[in-house]
Amino acid sequence: MKVAGELLILAREHHTALSLADKCINAAKSTDKTEIESLCLKISQNFKMDYSEHFDTEETTIFAFLSAETAELSQLCDQLTLEHQRLYKMAGELETDSGLLEEFGQLLKSHSRTEDTEIFPKIELLSATQRREILLSSAKHAAVIKA
After folding, report:
1. Are 106 and 25 in contact (CB under 8 A)?
2. pTM strictly above 0.70
3. Which of 70, 112, 117, 121 is close enough to 14 for a disulfide, judged by CB 3.0 to 4.6 Å?
């Protein structure tokens, strides 16, 4: 599926998020306590900082714009915003509850895929001005660090 130019930065960040999600799922299934604890600590310390610009761009541009288009899109954008909050919460809890690692990875994976398949294609509904705002916002992102 071709990604609109305005979404390329966000799509690359989703690729990084999907890699992190797979790493979480695989580590949790491996039962290697050292690997799990190390990954949980890194996520708990860095996830919010690494993804706050990404989530902020999505919420203040894409979700805000698409929510005005249809009730269904508004509901989906609300759900995705709640998932951002849940991901932040879970990431913070990983330092003391490594049992959440696989669930965190699964949520991050499904969340990123939903945005890629159900939200990103809807950018065609937006005006050129709105699309430019998305691009300008995402162009300010610091590089997301791979876990």
Report:
1. yes
2. yes
3. 112
